[in-house]
Amino acid sequence: xxxxxxxxxxxxxxxxxxxxxxxxxxxxxxxxxxxxxxxxxxxxxxxxxxxxxxxxxxxxxxxxxxxxxxxxxxxxxxxxxxxxxxxxxxxxxxxxxxxxxxxxxxxxxxxxxxxxxxxxxxxxxxxxxxxxxxxxxxxxxxxxxxxxxxxxxxxxxxxxxxxxxxxxxxxxxxxxxxxxxxxxxxxxxxxxxxxxxxxxxxxxxxxxxxxxxxxxxxxxxxxxxxxxxxxxxxxxxxxxxxxxxxxxxxxxxxxxxxxxxxxxxxxxxxxxxxxxxxxxxxxxxxxxxxxxxxxxxxxxxxxxxxxxxxxxxxxxxxxxxxxxxxx
Length: 327
Hints:
The protein is of the alpha/beta class. It is 53% helix and 15% strand.
């Protein structure tokens, strides 16, 4: 089988304008096949792309000796490649909140580490999400019920994050490791169908590939096309929001409710993000309802409210005072 990993990395970098000459890029390396390929591929293209490659490893301390073995392997790999590595050791269990899963906490701590290192070096962070991960994410979003954004899958570029392997399939990634004599760790939890994503990967995906062996490539074409549509709609929403602005964070409810539905919803999302409120469907729909009504107030989260009054819509900070119960 012809291996096109490096060509696919170059294709992704060019198509999504991921890197420029002089950039510093941090490869997030867990020790698995995907991240080992990411590091090796970027290092091999370092001179051609005119970049400087670093590495980051996060030890979640969840699998005891296996976690420590992964860290040791990544240290050895980076040493042999001549790549500067920074290791973060995090306490997932100790950081986990009551309503948060282990996976959610681990992810939050992992990206916090990436952000810290990126800010210190003035670098971008490359994660090893590939074409198969992208297809799984699209299917997962579809099963949950999603809009255009969910059908776009994993964003190839988001802020300081880039995904150079987004056109690479898992089979060719593992083949790349074999061809280049690269060892990689295998996370046993990837084979447990206790997780929904693993059920999709292990049970649903093989059936879809029987129907269409080029399923991953097809999903890739779809998401590439939909990303362009999503970018266009976001740009339209930003322009509309700028036109409706009457003050700092204050907007004309009359102008907003006259917008086409796809632009209206996106404009509300932007208003929420401006005030650091996560734009969930519930919050967007609630805010949209009072904008259409021309008046109203809804609680978004602690001390943050969506308010429409005298044709003005905004997110307000209102400190709540609660009376103590008298026993």
